[in-house]
Design brief:
Elements lengths: L1 H25 L4 H8 L20 H30 L3 H5 L9 E10 L10 E5 L6 E6 L5 E8 L3 E6 L5 E6 L9 E3 L5 E5 L2 H4 L3 H31 L3 H11 L8 H15 L5 H5 L8
Parallel strand pairs: 1-7, 6-8
Antiparallel strand pairs: 1-4, 2-3, 2-5, 5-6
Helix pairs in contact: 3-6, 3-8, 6-7, 7-8
Amino acid sequence: MADLHREAKLAALRERVRDQLDSEDEMVISASDVEAAVVPQPSNKRFMDLAQWDGALDDGTVAGLRRFASVAIFLGSALGILSGLLLLQGNPVDLLSTDLLSSERTVDLRMQVLEAESGEALEDLTIEWVDLESGTVLRSTTTDAYGWFNLEAVLTEARLLRVSGDGYTTAELELVPQSAGMPPITLTPGDGVERIALHGGEDRWTLDDAVRLSTTIGVLTILSGAVGLMAGVEVRRAGRYRRTQYLAGLALFSRGLIVFGPALILTGMIATSFAKNQFADVQEGPDVPDFR
């Protein structure tokens, strides 16, 4: 009897162990399930394909971006034209005349004569402006109390400048006159003639060269700004996308107020790219270069 009772207990114990093992098999969790539970999965809303970003904007918003782009490019280009006009106004006399296209110009030659050893100004010296080929004295004057002399309206061609005075060596300088930047002339005590070659206008940068460069930059700036105005109109028309962006890119060279103009134009170009699908050529078919 005792053996039967013992066997019944062992059978019941084995059944409980078997049930417990079966329940543990059901609780097994795979590594992929753990990773899925721990690592957050990307959602479609958070990780939207950037290539399809424009589909999230309605037509009204895109049209507003296009109008903003048109205004930004137009204003940036207008600042460029203003900057070009300011550059040109830096020397209005040269702009209103045809001197830039002329081979002959006249300037007022103003120079000073000093004593070589002491550096003192020399007064009442004789100044002669001489033709190199014929030796003819074309103009003459004298130095004032501060050693200065002035020759008005002389041609910007090579001439001989002769400076002489009692007790000093005569200085003869071969030079091309300039309206500014001429160095002083120094005389040494003694007699005789000292010949000096001084081609000031041929071998170095002059004020006239700076004026010409400034004028050229001003004209190019205005032209670039005008191209930008065309780009602003093209954005508003929404005709040819690539042509519009090319025109706006050229307008960057207008340099309106150094950085403000290009910044506005660049902002307009970015906004234009947002409204790309509203352009006629993009809606018609493949986006291919078109320069019409």
